[in-house]
C-alpha cells in the first residue's frame, strides 16, 4: 500500500528551483500520481507550468523513505502558481481538482498528509489579517470532503527574503503572513509549521532556489514525522542536496533514468542500448 | 467561451517529439487546462512523463486558430504513455481521470471534440482483432458520461514504421491495427480517421518525431474541420512546422515566453528586465 501526500498551494509548493542545480532524486519507492495512476517519480513533480522545477516534496519523500524502509510513498501534485487563498476557496476549480485527485489517489493508497505552501499572494492590501479565517475554511473542507478529520497538515513559512528583490514592493506584509501561518499551525489541530528561515531564492527574489527546496523538504518531513513545529534550521540540513544521491541506484531506477534520457533525446540509440546492457 | 478538445490515448497523443526540433507554438488563443483552470499553452502539453514532448495537439490548435479568428481553443491533456485499450476500460483510473478533467473543462468551455491516438499496445497476440469491440465501449462511455452523444472523435492511424526499428518485433500486427482504426472511423457515427502515412519516428522507431507530429496535427484538424477521413498526406503539409511561427507575437505571448525563460533559469534578471521593457 502506497502512503500518499497531497501537495497544494502556490508556486513554491509546485516548485521553481532549477533542476540543474541539485542532484536528481530518483527512487523507485517514490511515486507520483499522473492520470490517476502511480508511476516512478521524476522531477518536476508538480507540472503547473512549463517552467516547473524543484519543490519541497522530492526531498520530503526521500527523507520519508529513509525513515520508512521498504515502504512506498506517493505524491499527489495539485499546487498552482500565482494563486491566492480566494482562488483556493472551496467553490473554485483548484479545490475541486485537488479533491478529485486525492480521491483518485485514495483508491490505491492511504492518504497520510497534506503539504501546504501558500502566502506570497496574501502579502499586501491587509490580506494577511484574513489568512486564518480563509484558510480554516479550506482546511476544514479538505478534511470533510476527504473523510480525513485528523489528517496532518504541514504548513511551510514564506521566504524572509520576500521584502527585498526587484519585486519586493509586492510583499509588504510578508512578516505578518508568516506570523499568521505559524499561529494557525499552533492553534488548529494536527497542523504543523515548517519555517523558511534562512532559505534563499532564485534571482527573481520570489521563488525558493533548488538547494533551499531540498532543505525545506527535510523541514516539512521533520514537522510531519515528529508532529511538531520546526522553528529553526535543522542540524545537518546543509547536506540536504545529498538526501538520496549517495544511495546506489537499483536496476529499475537506472532503467527509468535511461528511458528518460533516450526518450527525451538526450542520448543516442547506441548509448541507450549499450547502457541498458551494462 | 473557450472551445475545448479532450486528448486521450497513449504516448503519441501525449507527445514524444523533441521540442528542440521545431519552432515553439505560443498563441494566446490556445489554452491548456491545468489544475482545473485555463492557462496559455506551452509545450509539452500532456505531461504524462518527465520526457513528454511534441504531440499532435499544438499544431491542431494552431490550425484551428487560423480557421476560427478571434476565438479561443482549450486543450484537456489526459493521454498516458504505454497504455492498452484494457487500461482505458471504463472501470479504470485513466477513463475516470479523463472524464473528471473533461467535466472540469466543460464548466468554462464548450467541449467540441475528442482526439484519440492509441494502438501501439494492441499490435501483437491477436489483440488487433479485439480493437473495435473494446474501443466502441470506451467511445460510447465517453459520449454517455459527458452527455455529448454526437461529439466528433478524431482517430489517428499508427506509424507505418512500427514494424521496423530495433523494437519492431513488438508490433507484428501494426497494419491490422491501422485497418481496424480506419474501419472503426468509417463505421461508427461522427468518427473520423487521420492517416499517419509517411510520418517518421524518433530513433526509438516508436514515437513520432516533432516534425511529423506538427504534420499529424494538421491532418487531425482537417479530419475534424471537414468531417472526413484523411487518407493521404495533405497538400502543403510539409510547411506544418511553420503553422504559427510566422505570425507576429502579441505582447501577452512575448511576456509569457519571457516569464518561461526567466522562471526556468534560461535568462538572467538583467536580460529579463531589459526585454520586458523593449
Structure, explained:
Two copies of one chain form a homodimer. Chain A is of the alpha/beta class and about 280 residues long. The first copy, chain A, folds into two domains: about 1-245, SGNH hydrolase (Rossmann fold), CATH 3.40.50.1110; about 250-278, no CATH class. Helix content of chain A is about 35%, strand content about 15%. Chain A is built from eight helices and seven strands. Chain A has helices at about 10-15, 55-65, 95-105, 130-145, 175-185, 210-225, 250-265, 270-275, and strands spanning about 1-10, 30-35, 35-40, 70-75, 110-115, 155, 190-195. A seven-stranded mixed beta sheet of chain A has the order 3-2-4-1-5-6-7, with helices on both faces. In chain A, helix 2 (about 55-65) crosses helix 6 (about 210-225) and helix 7 (about 250-265) packs antiparallel against helix 8 (about 270-275). The longest helix of chain A is centred in the C-terminal third of the chain and has 17 residues, at about 210-225. The two termini of chain A are about 30 Å apart. At the A-B interface, helix 3 and helix 7 of A face helix 3 and helix 7 of B.
